[in-house]
Amino acid sequence: MLGALRGDRRDVIRRIIGVVVLIAATVIAARSASGMADADTLTVAVVTVLAGSAVTLGFAVGPPVTASVDPLDPRRFAVVGPEPRPLAGALLVAGFLSVPVLVVLVLGISLAISWGAHGANALASIVSVVLGLATCVLFARVSMALGALVQRPRQSRELMGVYLVAILVVVVPVGVFLGSLEWRGAVPSQLASAAEILAWTPIGAAWGIALAPSAGAAVGSLVVAVLTVALLTLAWFALVDVLLTTTRRPVAVRERGGLGWFALLPGTPGGAVAARSLSYWLRDRRYLVNLVIVPIAAVVSMVPLLVAGVPFELAVLLPVPIMALFFGWLPHNDLAYDSTALWMHVASGMRGAPDRIGRLVPVLLISIPVLAITLPLAIVAHGRWAVFPAMVGVCAALFLSGLGLSSISSVLAPYAVSRPGDSPFQQPQRTGSGGVMAQGLVMAGAIITAAPAGWLTWQAIEGKTIDSMFALWIGVGAGAFVLIVGIAIGALLFERRGTRLMEFAEAT
């Protein structure tokens, strides 16, 4: 901590100003937290869980986003030959001695004072603050350790673009949600529901113990918080062992520029496929046309429904699932777009799993932000946030299962497409119906997979909100299962059909 005050004068001045501002903000926030004793119990509980979850999430995502250098990086101590476990324990204890953790401690004590004014048990308050601090520290330790494993020598514009997209994915939906709430002198029910859900997640469980609405909820939050701390501790000890036994890749004295995504992604077969696919998706107009058409087609699908008399609040929910379906369907013929470049994969003896997974990275990076931004907007237009979890489940089932089935289709039934440089609207002649069958089967399979979640979502739309969370887990579970199975089958087919795929690429 004292070492931060050494170095260039300008840097030291900036750090001192930052610490002073942080102290002032902490004092104001602590006084506000202590002053919540006059508020009702529900308000204090909601504010506690939401603020605690935000702070904990900040400890988890802050280090990679800000590219922070870890002064307690385990590899700094490798020169003295320490044992991994004692070093991991010592560094974990030292992690509690930092300015951000001291700020959280002050705020936690201030919140505990407010909890006591609302009848919270003193032991529960102490346990909540201790587990909250431990969760924050462990998230920061694990996040920095993971960052050290994949750290690159420079921050590229591609990486900054990924960070910007990630921020949009989180900030826009949250902003839309908060902006849609009606504040009438009390905590909106939607905000209370969000706090109740966060109290059962790793980032908010510790902060939901003291003022839980029931003994069962308090025990549930306690169990989740303890499990989170235990799992993060195991992960930290494992990462320290890996960092001490892994040699860092040497950095060239003079780095070559212009590598783009190849400089950012890992130097593995899957990373190389992902980097090449990202370059294609963001530059090849054949891909760009598909990306532009999907949102337009989804919005246009509302018109027939509105003309037929379907209420707007129902019709507005349709475009997002359609986008999820088409985004999952897009890579169903991705091998055909490679043309003769496919020989690099086959000739190098690449395994099927890196090829299948790497090709899905561009679709995930592009589709998830679009869906994460448009879905809350659709829910605002619909007017009932209770159906939001169910809609997430339906979209996840359509999107993930589409990706899984596309991983099989692109290897099993590729069909000719326009060649590189040709107009994306120019379609070559086809002698068979394999392309039509492949497209139809992928879409039909995704719709069938999402049917249970869709039925539960319709029940939620009709007013049975108890089915909303169930639809979320059913949709995510079904989609993830089809995705994993699809990648496994597609990988096996890719390895067995390499010769046929080469013949197809040469013939088209």
From TrEMBL:
Q: Which keywords are on file for this protein?
A: Membrane, Transmembrane, Transmembrane helix
Membrane-spanning residues: 12-30, 42-66, 87-113, 119-140, 161-179, 191-212, 219-239, 259-275, 287-308, 314-330, 360-381, 387-415, 436-458, 470-494
Q: What is this protein called?
A: ABC-2 type transport system permease protein
